[in-house]
């Protein structure tokens, strides 16, 4: 068993990067916030977690070099840029742009976000352009989750009105499980076929080497957003048998259909563009009652 000791604050790496603090240790890699003395900026430095090579290969997670090559295909202001690779202490390290802000998971857990149906759809529509950028360049992220979305404070200007949400601009990070889109569809394992809605099925849906994986994850992301503004009915004791989202959330029929397709309970979306069209239609439909009330 390999003993792993994270770098301490103040550790110098590669002759120029000084560790400020750990950012997190995932299943296959470890990330640190560092100061780049040569460029005078903060960066993210990441390396493989020792002793996890076989597990990483089995999961299809990328090595630092593979991640750098894949991110090199992308050029979007809401995706981290690659600054370089270096070797230190026998490990290959990846240097990435640091996206400053709070991750969506913490913002939701702390109750800092409360969106209604329309706001949730608008948020997802804005975020969808980032995912579409990946897919158009042959890349699927495969790990779109609240902790991998950084909310950067919105600039105090009207330069990007589509991104001007009060909670910040959403950036997509952590491409360790990303991969090129497969030429052929992946066949689900037998356990995923036998247990619809089980953990094996969900893992297959999330890890498929196809845009459907990211679209499925965006369905769960939309549920997180919708529940951020959910308040139980008055008088609900809260100890009843758990109900599904279709019973708990009061949503328009367009939004329900859209969610069912994202979650692959109905015919799944094939592309982000298809989703964006339905998001636009659902948002427009929600706006009609307000217009008639004026």
UniProtKB/TrEMBL annotation:
Fetch the Gene3D superfamilies from UniProt: Transferase(Phosphotransferase) domain 1
UniProt-listed SMART domains:
TyrKc (SM00219)
One Pfam match, by short name? Answer: Pkinase
* Domain of life assignment: Bacteria
Q: Which GO terms describe its biological process?
A: intracellular signal transduction
Residues of the Protein kinase domain: 17-294
Kindly list the GO molecular function terms attached to this UniProt entry: ATP binding; protein serine/threonine kinase activity; protein tyrosine kinase activity
Write out the entry's keywords from A to Z.
ATP-binding, Nucleotide-binding
Entry GO CC: cytoplasm
Can you name this protein?
Protein kinase domain-containing protein
């Amino acid at each position: 068993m390999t003993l792993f000791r994270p770098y301490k604050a103040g550790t110098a790496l590669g002759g120029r990067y000084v560790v400020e603090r750990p950012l997190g240790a995932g299943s296959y890699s470890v990330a640190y916030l560092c100061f780049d003395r040569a460029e005078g900026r903060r960066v993210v430095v990441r390396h493989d977690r020792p002793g996890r090579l076989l597990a990483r290969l089995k999961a299809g997670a990328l090595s630092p070099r593979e991640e750098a090559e894949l991110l090199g295909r992308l050029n979007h202001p809401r995706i981290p840029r690659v600054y370089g690779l270096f070797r230190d202490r026998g490990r290959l390290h990846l240097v990435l742009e640091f996206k400053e802000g709070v991750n969506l998971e913490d913002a939701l857990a702390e109750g800092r976000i409360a969106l209604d149906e329309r706001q949730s759809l608008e948020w997802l529509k804005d975020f969808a352009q980032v995912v579409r950028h990946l897919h158009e360049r042959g890349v699927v992220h495969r790990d779109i989750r609240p902790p991998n979305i950084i909310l950067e404070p919105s600039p105090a200007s009207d330069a990007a009105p589509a991104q001007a949400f009060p909670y910040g601009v959403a950036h997509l990070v952590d491409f360790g499980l990303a991969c090129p889109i497969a030429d052929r569809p992946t066949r689900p394992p037998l356990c995923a076929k036998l247990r619809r809605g089980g953990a094996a099925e969900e893992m297959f849906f999330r890890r498929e080497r196809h845009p459907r994986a990211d679209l499925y994850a965006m369905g769960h992301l939309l549920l997180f957003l919708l529940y951020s503004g959910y308040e139980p009915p008055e008088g609900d004791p809260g100890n009843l048998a758990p109900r599904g989202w279709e019973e708990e959330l009061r949503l328009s029929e367009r939004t329900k259909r859209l969610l069912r397709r994202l979650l692959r309970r109905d015919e799944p979306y094939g592309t982000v563009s298809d989703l964006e069209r339905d998001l636009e239609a659902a948002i427009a439909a929600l706006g009609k009652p307000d217009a008639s009330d004026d």
